[in-house]
Amino acid sequence: AQTVTQSQPEMSVQEAETVTLSCTYDTSESDYYLFWYKQPPSRQMILVIRQEAYKQQNATENRFSVNFQKAAKSFSLKISDSQLGDAAMYFCAYRSAIGGKLIFGQGTTLQVKP
Amino acid sequence: NAGVTQTPKFRVLKTGQSMTLLCAQDMNHEYMYWYRQDPGMGLRLIHYSVGEGTTAKGEVPDGYNVSRLKKQNFLLGLESAAPSQTSVYFCASREEFGTSRPQHFGDGTRLSIL
Known about the structure:
The complex is a heterodimer of chains A (114) and B (114).
Chain A: E1 3-5, E2 10-14, E3 19-21, E4 24-26, E5 32-39, E6 46-52, E7 60-61, E8 64-69, E9 74-79, E10 88-96, E11 102-104, E12 108-113
Parallel strand pairs in A: 2-12
Antiparallel strand pairs in A: 1-4, 3-9, 5-6, 5-10, 7-8, 8-9, 10-11, 10-12
Chain B: E1 4-7, E2 10-13, E3 19-25, E4 31-37, E5 43-49, E6 56-57, E7 65-67, E8 73-78, E9 87-94, E10 104-105, E11 109-113
Parallel strand pairs in B: 2-11
Antiparallel strand pairs in B: 1-3, 3-8, 4-5, 4-9, 5-6, 7-8, 9-10, 9-11
C-alpha cells in the first residue's frame, strides 16, 4: 500500500523569505500523480500544485514550485516570497494513475511571521 | 457554479443516534469520495464511488455506510454514532478521464458525537 509522510508538523518563515516543505512517499508503482493542497483556517482544501510522475520537469505555479525526485520518492514544495496569506496547513497527496484514491500525508502547519 | 456542496456544515449528535451527510456535485463527475480529517492524521479515505450505483471501501470504512443512487449525490451514513466518529468530514469529486486532474473538495462538515 502507498504511504505519504510529511515529517515536519510545523514550519515557520519570515514574510518575503523562502520556505521548503518536505514530503516523501512509498510506492511500487511507476505511474502516479502528486499534489500539494493548502488548507487555511476556513477549512477549504485548495490545490496548490500537481506533478505527473512521468514528467521530469518540476512543476511551477507562480511563487510555488516543487522538487520532484522520483528515485528518492521525494516531493518537496518551495514557497518563494512568502506572504501572510500563505499561512495554512499544507498536505502532500499521492494518487495512483490506476484507480482514484488520493492518499494524504499528515500535514505541515506553516506560520508566516510579519 | 456551486461545485461540491456538503450538507449540513455542522452537527452535534448523541452516542447511538444516526444521521446522513449529503454531498452534491454539479460538475458531472464520475468519482466521488468521503474523507475524515482528524488532528495530526491528515485526511483518511472512508468510502468512495467510481460511478452511479457503485461504492467501495477506503482506509477507515468501519461504522459508515454510503450510497450513490444518483450520479450527482453521494451519501454518508452513520447508523449508530460513536464518540470516535467526532471529526471533520470532507466530500470530494473528480472526472473519470484525465486522471491528472485534481479532486474538488466541499467545505467540510464538522460532526461532534457526545
